[in-house]
Amino acid sequence: MSKSPEGGGPAHGLWWWERRRSALLDVVLAVVAGLECAAGAYSATIDRFGLGEPFAVVSAVLGALAGGTLLVRRRWPVLPVVVALVFVPALFGVLLMVVSLYTLAATWEWPSRRGRVVALSALALAESFGMALLAMFTPTSGPTPEPLPPTWVFVLLAALVAIGVTVPPVVTGLYVGARRRLVESLKDRAHGLEAELSLLAEQARERAARARLEERTRIAREMHDVVAHRVSLMVVHASALERIIPKDPEKGVQSARLVGDVGRQALDELREILGVLRMTEAPRQAEPADTLARLPRLVDQSRAAGMAVTLTVSGERRLYADEAEQTAYRVVQEGLTNAHKHAGGAQVAVLLAYVPNGVRVAVVNDRAAGGPAVLLPSGGNGLVGMRERVLALGGSFTAGPAEGGGFRVEAVLPSRLAVHPGGLGQ
Fold first, then answer.
1. Which domain holds residue 89?
2. pLDDT value at residue 351
3. Same domain, residue pair 311 and 167
4. Does residue 13 sit within a domain?
5. Is 36 within the bounds of a domain?
6. Which of 75, 96, 190, 310 has a CA 20 to 30 Å removed from the CA of 264?
7. Burial class (CB in 10 A: 0-12, 13-18, 19+), 368
8. Is 38 part of a structural domain of the chain?
9. pLDDT in the model for residue 413
């Protein structure tokens, strides 16, 4: 797809014309200019040069061809200007001169070709001035020639004629060409902005998709954290009831009551998460956040389920940001849940240490001591989720075999997450 030399846009018409109406305009201009040049050449050949009819006909044909060069003014804008300069000394071809100068100024890019435009326009101005002055000083035949006005009058009139023929079309062409190029640049910029907006919209959709995926992952992780531990305790208690009820009915009743309490807590926490998803519901009074201050209660629940677990706290107590304290709490919760699942009857130690570089939590269990086996389902994502949460806060997380057997889950959160009197963190 080609571009129009004058408009710079894609050409959908005939040859070098962008539109068919542009071709029609050039045809009309070429016909009118050809008739003018043919009549001027015919008249000049007979009246001024005194040649015969054959020479006049040849001159008229050449004049018509000269005017016809306007057909190619958009493709080769210099050609009509050169032809007009050739015919200026013969004192005809005014329309050819005006249209060709306008086209030259409008189609040639400014300022990359300003030298050629200025040179050709100046030459046309000089020729027009000289020929107009020559025509005014040429004596007219007649019986009694009238006295001539002063010379400066002829010079002024010749200058006005030359300026009127050359300057307005050049200035108009420069304005139209600059305006057209400005419109084209604005169109290109608009297309660029449209493409950029499309790209930004696509990126926004991708970010929204990633955000939805991250939110689903976060909700699934949160449901696992708050429900899996309590459900594990319920399963452990339910399994113990089978052995306790025949031997000690009163203790069985207490265990059953504990199962109910743990189940209600799990339902409450699950209801809170679902309430966040259903935004149309009225907000409920939130339960106290799971923080490090509630670790003793968490350990007591596991102890009540029959686990031999101890809690050791060292260092000066410091408050941490809610997300940091909840993450540390979840690490301990996940460690206890894994001990229930895989180390029945083992000794479990929960460690909470406030160290200079932050807060450290660990859950360590030794080898299983042959306790009752409780088969609990496991998705294998609990420790992976804990690692992601800890690393997202800038901490470190390890989970693996402990020295002398057993298993160890440990996390360290940085001190910059601590709450200071002036605000959160540093």
1. 20-139+146-195
2. 94
3. no
4. no
5. yes
6. 310
7. middle
8. yes
9. 93
Q: Tens digits of per-residue pLDDT, 255-287?
A: 777 777 777 777 777 776 666 666 544 444 444
- Rounded Cα gap, residues 327 and 388, in angstroms: 10
**Residue 261, Cβ density class (10 Å: 0-12 exposed, 13-18 middle, ≥19 buried):** middle
What is the distance between the alpha carbons of residues 331 and 298, in angstroms, rounded to a whole number?
Answer: 12
Tell me how far apart the alpha carbons of residues 263 and 298 are, in angstroms, rounded to a whole number. Answer: 14
pLDDT in tens, 286-335: 444 678 888 998 888 888 777 889 999 998 888 998 889 989 998 998 88
pLDDT tens-digit series, residues 205-219: 888 888 878 777 766
Could you say which DSSP state residue 181 is in?
H
> Does residue 295 contact residue 332 with C-beta atoms inside 8 Å?
yes
Q: What is the SS3 assignment for 10?
A: strand
What would you report as the CA-atom Rg of the chain, rounded to the nearest whole angstrom?
49
* 297 and 157 in a common domain: no
Number of domains in the chain: 2
Please enumerate, as own/partner, the contacts of 181-185 that have beta carbons within 8 Å and a separation of 24 or more.
Answer: 181/8, 181/109, 184/7, 184/8, 184/9
Q: Which pLDDT value is given to residue 138?
A: 64
Q: Which helix (H) or strand (E) holds 360?
A: strand 358-365
Domain co-membership, 49 together with 167: yes
Residue 258 CB burial class (10 angstroms; 0-12, 13-18, ≥19): middle
Does residue 236 fall inside a structural domain? no
Q: Which of 370, 358, 369, 362 is nearest to 336 (CA)?
A: 362
Paired tokens of 213: 């995926």
Is residue 415 within 8 A of residue 360, CB to CB? The reply is no
* Residue 180 and residue 305 share a domain: no
The pTM assigned to this predicted structure is: 0.45
Residue 135 shares a structural domain with residue 26:
yes
Domain co-membership, 306 together with 422: yes
